[in-house]
């Protein structure tokens, strides 16, 4: 509370308390030196009222007095297993007010997404006579956004959010692949989300299990988002990447066309997109290729009409290309099975899934890279993996033998604009690699190259 008592000297205030003029429980200490004027979480009422009672609602609504001072702020933390309603109850917010405030929050943010440890500041307006009126709460769900719920007269609560301005800082990294691309990226300080984008964009042309060799190199230029306070708020776009395989450079550049569409192109202005991804899963290794093999369950040689990718259960599986779902159901030895028709000739199939992605069903349209399911071991399977097939005119074919058309090629003024953008990106990369932002992959202690095998995939 905020009244003339708060302006009394400390010794005088203690004397009044000692004399019994008021009890310590009625004094709320307000730390004016705290950041943003927020008081520490030390306030505890002597007796916890019963939230939602009629008498408390009347007092907290301010019907018995006028505002007696500035808003009091009480910051609490969401406990493990608690909800936002639990936190508001702990702060002695009347149940009806809490329900109305949370309902207003749903217009801009799902309360179920609040995680344990999230700090929430609950706001109260002191009233004459010692009561308090709940007027809202605020919190920052991520470094780039703050959310506020405020009382709107007698008409309930209203919600608002503020986006924090960020600076996009270019960061360059490069490394040498010794054992795996992910390991090289981690040593170079590249965030996992950036490495995933790197792999996904090169998946059109590169088989990351067979094409990578020790000594191959990579370069990356990406954006790091930084707030005005200097807080790192995640990663932005992948601007440039290059993969050097056996001495051959494969650079790609991000470019936004005049129609607003964003894509990645090689140095000649050709889109890197193909009709199908070579690898419809991230971070997996091939355990069985297309062709004759000794079947691990049946015990005899049998034609393997697809490619198997070993990965942990729950790993996302992507649609290899744009198309329509023809089948999404359990299918005997295939287990949970999806087949996508891409055109009149080409289809792809995905088997042994643990489960299907939401909205995946017969007739659904999917785009290249959409998640259609998750790795599992349903059907005739010895362990979690994806069995992937490419079908041409209804017959399974070797995915590596299918000749897939490339994407569009820029021409005219669009090509000129791309070439200018490419030169700007290359200059930005050189400037970034010359500064402190560059993280280099350390060379191994031994000069002997580490080979690739099934135990140590590349």
Folded structure, characterized:
- This protein has helices at residues 10-18, 54-60, 84-90, 95-105, 181-187, 192-202, 412-433, and strands at 72-77, 119-126, 132-142, 145-151, 157-163, 166-176, 217-227, 232-245, 248-256, 262-265, 285-288, 291-294, 301-304, 307-310, 316-318, 323-330, 336-341, 346-356, 365-366, 371-375, 385-392, 395-397, 439-440.
- It is globular.
- The model is unreliable at 1-64 and 436-458 (pLDDT under 50).
- With 458 residues, the protein is an alpha+beta fold.
- The protein is 16% helix and 33% strand.
- It starts with 9 loop residues before the first helix and ends in an 18-residue tail after the last strand.
- The chain folds into three domains: 4-163, Nuclear Transport Factor 2, Chain: A (Roll), CATH 3.10.450.350; 167-260 and 416-440, Roll (Nuclear Transport Factor 2, Chain: A); 285-401, Glucose Permease (Domain IIA) (Distorted Sandwich), CATH 2.70.70.
- The strands form four sheets. Strands 11, 14, 15, 16, 17, 18, 19, 20, 21 and 22 form a ten-stranded antiparallel sheet that branches. A six-stranded mixed sheet has the order 10-9-8-7-6-23, with helices on both faces. A five-stranded antiparallel sheet has the order 1-2-3-4-5, with helices on one face.
